[in-house]
């Protein structure tokens, strides 16, 4: 549900070890930070417990901040098939939490996120972090994964997928 010209966007950077999340408010071209964080899972825990933790934590973020929509980084294929499978399972838990809240979820490739935020799809992490400080001045970011999640939300806002047409 979009609140007129204001949209609350949940950005997600899924990972089994540490999922980043960030919530922003987009009003036209103006962006403001609402919250961000990281969800770390216990590597010693069984896979079902780790996935349940991700699901529950993302569901709690959604309940706390009431986003209108979500944006998630697309899965990429690693050289290690086991890593790709674990990432896909983590994404499944995160997307299931969004589905449970009936959120519209847009998926964006990492290169598209970088291009939308920095201006080039070949941007490195330092360039993304620097642009994030410009776009959301004074924001204390929980860590690298939260930075990536905020970048996904910002890219989604810049791409305009959730704006209403008058």
From TrEMBL:
CDD domains from the UniProt entry: RuvC
Family membership: Belongs to the RuvC family.
Gene Ontology MF annotations: crossover junction DNA endonuclease activity; DNA binding; magnesium ion binding
Free-text function comment from the UniProt entry: The RuvA-RuvB-RuvC complex processes Holliday junction (HJ) DNA during genetic recombination and DNA repair. Endonuclease that resolves HJ intermediates. Cleaves cruciform DNA by making single-stranded nicks across the HJ at symmetrical positions within the homologous arms, yielding a 5'-phosphate and a 3'-hydroxyl group; requires a central core of homology in the junction. The consensus cleavage sequence is 5'-(A/T)TT(C/G)-3'. Cleavage occurs on the 3'-side of the TT dinucleotide at the point of strand exchange.
The EC number(s) this enzyme carries: 3.1.21.10
HAMAP family: RuvC
Top-level lineage group: Bacteria
Keyword line: Cytoplasm, DNA damage, DNA recombination, DNA repair, DNA-binding, Endonuclease, Hydrolase, Magnesium, Metal-binding, Nuclease
Manner of cofactor binding, per the entry note: Binds 2 Mg(2+) ion per subunit.
Binding site for Mg(2+) 1: 13, 145
Gene Ontology annotations of biological process type: DNA recombination; DNA repair; SOS response
Cofactor: Mg(2+)
Matching NCBIfam families: ruvC (TIGR00228)
Subunit field text: Homodimer which binds Holliday junction (HJ) DNA. The HJ becomes 2-fold symmetrical on binding to RuvC with unstacked arms; it has a different conformation from HJ DNA in complex with RuvA. In the full resolvosome a probable DNA-RuvA(4)-RuvB(12)-RuvC(2) complex forms which resolves the HJ.
Recorded catalytic activity of this chain's protein: Endonucleolytic cleavage at a junction such as a reciprocal single-stranded crossover between two homologous DNA duplexes (Holliday junction)
Name of this protein: Crossover junction endodeoxyribonuclease RuvC
Active site: 13, 73, 145
Binding site for Mg(2+) 2: 73
GO cellular component, one term: Holliday junction resolvase complex
PANTHER family, per database record: CROSSOVER JUNCTION ENDODEOXYRIBONUCLEASE RUVC
UniProt organism field: Aurantiacibacter arachoides
């Amino acid at each position: 549900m979009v609140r007129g010209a204001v949209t609350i966007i949940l950005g997600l950077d899924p990972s089994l070890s540490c999922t980043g999340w960030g919530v922003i408010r987009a009003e036209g071209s103006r962006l403001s930070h609402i919250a961000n964080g990281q969800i770390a899972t216990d590597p010693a825990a069984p896979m079902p417990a780790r996935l349940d933790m991700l699901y529950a934590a993302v569901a709690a973020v959604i309940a706390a901040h009431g986003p209108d929509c979500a944006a998630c980084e697309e899965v990429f294929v690693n050289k290690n098939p086991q890593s790709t499978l674990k990432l896909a399972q983590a994404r499944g838990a995160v997307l299931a939490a969004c589905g449970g809240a009936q959120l519209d979820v847009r998926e964006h490739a990492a290169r598209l996120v970088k291009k939308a935020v920095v201006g080039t799809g070949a941007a490195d992490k330092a360039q993304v972090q620097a642009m994030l400080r410009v776009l959301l001045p004074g924001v204390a970011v929980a860590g690298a994964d939260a930075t990536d999640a905020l970048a996904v939300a910002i890219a989604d806002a810049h791409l305009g997928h959730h704006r209403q047409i008058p």
